[in-house]
Design goal:
Elements: H1 6-51, H2 54-79, H3 85-116
Helix pairs in contact: 2-3
Length: 117
């Protein structure tokens, strides 16, 4: 069995204490600064990747909104009843948001200019 001298034991204890302190500082001080940067970089790359699907997502949304309007018209003609007011409000909101998405390339420069001022 090896015998450790008291000075070596003290040095070993000091080294372990410093290492534990470095780990504690890394967890408590460095991670709160590093994690948001990593999260933002990851989110930015995901948003950029999803940006390539904008055209197809807009086409899909237009098809869904058009199908919903057709469904509402067919159902109201078949039952000879007026659609609920909440249905018309929701469909109006969906149509408005779709129109904003379709016109966004024309609206965006004005929005960016307004935000810069």
């Amino acid at each position: 069995m090896l015998k450790i001298k008291s000075t070596e034991r003290t040095a070993c204890g000091a080294a372990l204490t410093v290492a534990a302190g470095a780990v504690a500082c890394g967890v408590c001080c460095v991670l709160p600064f590093a994690l948001p940067a990593v999260a933002l970089a990851s989110a930015g790359s995901i948003i950029a990747w999803l940006g390539g699907f904008q055209f197809w997502a807009t086409v899909l949304a237009a098809a869904i909104v058009a199908a919903a309007w057709i469904w509402i018209i067919v159902q109201s003609l078949r039952t000879e009843a007026k659609p609920a007011r909440s249905t018309l409000y929701m469909m109006g909101t969906a149509t408005t948001v779709l129109l904003l998405a379709l016109l966004w390339s024309h609206i965006e420069p004005f929005v960016v200019q307004a935000l810069k001022a």
